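FIELD: query
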Amino acid sequence: MSSGGITWIADEDISWLGYYIKLARGLTGEQLAARLAAAGGPVPVQATTGPQAEELIDRLDAERGDTDSIAVRYGDHAGLGFAVAYGHWPSVLGPAYHDGTSRDGVHIFELYYEKQNPKVPPPAFAYFHDDNYVCGFDMYMDTWSQEITGPGADLIRDDIIAARIPEERNRDAAHRASLGVLEQRFELALPRDLILGASLPTTLVRGQQPR
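FIELD: result
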């Protein structure tokens, strides 16, 4: 299992809900987290591990009587800024065909998987550049869409076909192979040991407490 790229994501539980990950070329992790924040901006909290971030959100929502908080842990690795979401991110931060975090020439790579969704949607990938959607696809195609969408679909179509992802019937194998294609094609990396075990800078981006 590689820890230098992103294929490891298919084999780990980043959060109990699945994962929402942004990788940015052209922004630091801190800048990316700020762009993910709702009006009013991010609210920094103490550094957390993944489980600590989820515990923090549970506590804040219980105190507020709401269920809308989202935090991101963020950092920088291999020339990319990264942000990983915790809390109530499903269907709030993505997936989307428009993404404000890629403005001003930034390249954004979005990885999204609602693992606990009862409809069992596949993991999804989307690439944005300069506030435009470039391309994306479902990372399990056998019983879902086999369409690679976006004006830049040709960037990844041949690689996806060569990896036999459209005909792969095993969901986990398709997921892993898709991440491998993206890792190679876009030179993507995420630090496994930091994401799974270390404390990282953390900020609330939704459901913030008053300053």
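FIELD: remark
The chain is about 25% helix and 25% strand.
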